[in-house]
Amino acid sequence: MILEQFKKDVEEGFAHHPKTISSKYFYDKTGDALFVKIMNMPEYYLTRAEHEIFKEQTSEIIKSLNLHPNQYFELIELGAGDGTKTKELLKILDGENFQFDYLPVDISINALEKLENALSNEIPNLNVKIQQGDYFEVLASLKDSPHPKVVLFLGSNIGNLSDDLANKFIYQLGANLKPLDKLFLGVDLIKPASVVLPAYNDAQGITRDFNLNLLERMNRELDADFDINSFLHVPEYLEEEGIARSFIESQVEQNVTIKKIGKTFCFKKGERIHTEISRKYSDEIINNIITNTDFKITGKLTDSNHLFADYILTRG
Questions:
Q1: N or C: where does the chain have the smaller number of CB atoms within 10 Å of the terminal CB?
Q2: Cα 190 from Cα 193, distance rounded (Å)
Q3: Which pLDDT tens digit goes with each residue over 243-266?
Q4: What DSSP string runs through 198-242?
Q5: Crossing angle, helix 2-13 and helix 206-222, to 10 degrees?
Q6: Is 51 helix (H, G, I), strand (E, B) or coil?
Q7: Contact 181/149 with Cβ under 8 angstroms?
């Protein structure tokens, strides 16, 4: 099923001008390992900045979310990963005897079980209820629960969506929540290209390898014949626009055959495949993308260098 969807998405994406491929296909086994390296790069400030917020401003997070030890709530995290940042909050909530369940949501049962095992060792009294599946399907299944909900969506993952799709995403989140439920939304802030671009084009070439692994993956899984050495990783960012983009650019005119799709695709010299957007935000942009949703900004926390922000959005 996953292979069939991959084939379909590549075929449809390569029919566009410019050619495109979804950033979700970055994350195979190789891509996962490369992204771990990216998060530890000196140039990649995003993870460190949000981790600082969770570590240094834990009490402010709890206060901003209007959480109280005697009021039970459900803490739902969309795409929890290894939970590194969230553990800072979970440890304090557990240590101060807050009454809550932690519900990490992911499509990967392996990722969830790994996180569950880690939490059972690190925070043994924590109530963890892993939720495998699509974000909205899981939220819909929890909608009838009478308990207050806090949804965490961290790491500026919302930035991989266009503003229009982000608006629809947040609207749909709100449709699965009740009045006064909270969305804790982590976003990368607009800043100069001198800070942003190195995070997508590091000196070691890890982001280059991460981007070009998309071609390697098509070679492996779709029996394609991409010559990796004839393509370049090309990132772009304009501070005025506030959107980082990643491309794979053909250095020569060439044909690439993808046998499992049964087609040959022509690439002109300089032609690009658009692989990713990473939107950067301001208060104005956040207000724009929550227009016509049920949410309002009720709080905001930033790291000490004002590189990253976690917004508290409350459903009306």
A1: N
A2: 9
A3: 999 999 999 999 999 999 999 999
A4: HHHS-TTSHHHHHHHHHHHHHHHHH-B---GGGEEEEEEEETTTT
A5: 110
A6: helix
A7: yes
Q: How confident is the model at residue 1 (pLDDT cuts 50, 70, 90)?
A: low
Token code pair at residue 213: 């692994």
Show the tokens assigned to 266: 């022509």
Q: How many CA atoms, within 13 angstroms, populate the side-chain half-sphere of residue 291?
A: 9
Q: Three-state SS for 4?
A: helix
Say if residues 210 and 217 touch (Cβ distance below 8 Å): no
Residues 6+ apart with CB under 8 A from 257: 224, 225, 263, 264, 265
CB atoms within 10 A of CB 143: 12
For residue 193, give the amino acid letter: A
Beta pairing class for 231-238 and 243-250: antiparallel
pLDDT of residue 108: 79
Q: Which residues contact 280 (CB under 8 A, 6 or more apart)?
A: 159, 187, 188, 189, 190, 191, 196, 242, 243, 244
**Domains in the chain: boundaries:** 2-42+201-279, 45-191+281-315
Helix (H, G, I), strand (E, B) or coil at 265: strand
Q: Is the CB of residue 264 less than 8 Å from the CB of residue 247? A: no
Alpha carbon distance 308, 186 (integer Å)? 8
For strands 272-279 and 131-132, give the pairing: unpaired
Q: Nearest-5° angle of CA 39, CA 40, CA 42?
A: 110
Nearest to 294 by CA among 267, 314, 272: 314
As a whole number of angstroms, the distance between CA 185 and CA 256 comes to 40
Q: Rounded to an integer, what distance in angstroms lies between the CA atom of residue 92 and that of residue 99? A: 12
Going by pLDDT thresholds of 50, 70 and 90, the confidence category of residue 2 is confident
Range from 13-22, 27-36, 148-157 carrying the lowest mean pLDDT? 27-36
Tell whether the model's pLDDT for residue 197 goes beyond 80: yes
Task: Give the Cα separation of 48 and 164 in Å (integer).
Answer: 28
Of the candidates 23, 16, 65, the one whose C-alpha atom is nearest the C-alpha of residue 181 is: 65
